[in-house]
TrEMBL record:
<feature type="domain" description="F420-non-reducing hydrogenase iron-sulfur subunit D">
    <location>
        <begin position="12"/>
        <end position="134"/>
    </location>
</feature>
<dbReference type="GO" id="GO:0051536">
    <property type="term" value="F:iron-sulfur cluster binding"/>
</dbReference>
<dbReference type="InterPro" id="IPR003813">
    <property type="entry name" value="MvhD/FlpD"/>
</dbReference>
<keyword id="KW-0411">Iron-sulfur</keyword>
<dbReference type="GO" id="GO:0046872">
    <property type="term" value="F:metal ion binding"/>
</dbReference>
<keyword id="KW-0560">Oxidoreductase</keyword>
<keyword id="KW-0408">Iron</keyword>
<dbReference type="Pfam" id="PF02662">
    <property type="entry name" value="FlpD"/>
</dbReference>
<protein>
    <submittedName>
        <fullName>F420-non-reducing hydrogenase iron-sulfur subunit</fullName>
    </submittedName>
</protein>
<keyword id="KW-0479">Metal-binding</keyword>
<dbReference type="GO" id="GO:0016491">
    <property type="term" value="F:oxidoreductase activity"/>
</dbReference>
């Protein structure tokens, strides 16, 4: 294992719907349930509002991993928003595989507002997954370009 991967602390962006996932994150915080501080939450009115470009821009901006968290299937406050988000995530995963970043760096989760503990588990799970994968190929490319200059 080289020095870069030993010291690697992944940057993760979590796109969370207001009614369930963000409320679960809030519950985790108010219950003092620990989860990795490298997970940055982006509040969305509904997971269905996540756009393919948002997901791709998160990687471009330096995220090593990204996940979308929405309501449980069948309980979306906007009826089918989480189902639209799931389709978008699947599409972007295939794009990430095609361009060599890796679709496993992106995931979709469903949880209720009462699942603060589950939110923390997801944050830990994604952090460990991305830590095992190492830095995003985009970030590795950027650091090499910076070293060349």
């Amino acid at each position: 294992m080289n020095q870069i991967t030993e010291d690697f602390e992944p940057q993760i962006v979590a796109f969370c719907c207001r009614y369930c996932a963000y409320a679960a994150a809030d519950l985790a915080g108010s219950s003092r349930i620990q989860y990795p501080p490298n997970v940055k939450i982006v509040l969305l009115p509904c997971s269905g509002k996540v756009d393919e470009l948002y997901l791709l821009k998160a990687f471009e901006a330096g995220a090593d991993g990204v996940y979308v968290a929405g309501c449980l299937e069948g309980t979306c406050h906007f009826l089918t928003g989480n189902l639209r988000a799931k389709k978008r995530v699947q599409y972007v995963k295939s794009l990430l595989d095609e361009v060599g970043i890796g679709g496993e760096r992106l995931e979709m989760y469903n949880l209720s507002s009462a699942e603060g503990q589950r939110f923390a588990e997801i944050a830990r799970e994604m952090t460990e997954r991305i830590r095992a994968l190492g830095p995003s190929p985009l970030n590795q490319r950027k650091s090499k370009e910076g070293a060349i200059k």
